[in-house]
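Changelog note: in this version the structure field was regenerated for every chain. One regenerated record is shown below for reference.
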Amino acid sequence: MGMSAPPGAGRRKAMSEINVTPLVDVMLVLLIIFMVSTPLIVRDNQERLVDINLPITRNNPDTVDLNSNDRLILRVGTDLKVYLGTELITDCGAARATTDAGEFARLAQPCFEELGLKLGNNPRLQADEALYLAADAFVPHGFVAGATNRLRLSGVTRVGMVTYESQPASVTPPPP
């Protein structure tokens, strides 16, 4: 007695389902990698465990000649004096003396309020709703972020960041 095969058993049928098991395996491995590496980037006692090098903008096609441009320029010097054009807006030098982030934020807050008030009352800035922000390379990032936030709150919708294509040789860090 022979074995009988069901009808059509000689032909293979194409499988129409996608096997997602390898995709799920890869996604779980990536999730674990990100979960393990993320705490290395977060600050631990105000010190980063991973060094971050901010880029210098080279070969930027969107360069603007500041000397022939009529847009307002907000300048922030190393001493945390803020100028709009040639006019001194505020002096936040007291905040520069501390290295504690909380103390820096407390000392800089009145400067940010004064900056927002004066920028909000500037008719040319309110009409243009745009300016360039030229901050010294050694100004704390928190100060630039706070100033940018005050720009946004005062109605400035377009902010251009002034950078160098390469670090000038004449730039030296300020004394501690």
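Spot check on this record: The domain at 66-161 is CATH 3.30.420 (Nucleotidyltransferase; domain 5). Confidence is low (pLDDT under 50) at residues 44-55, 169-176.
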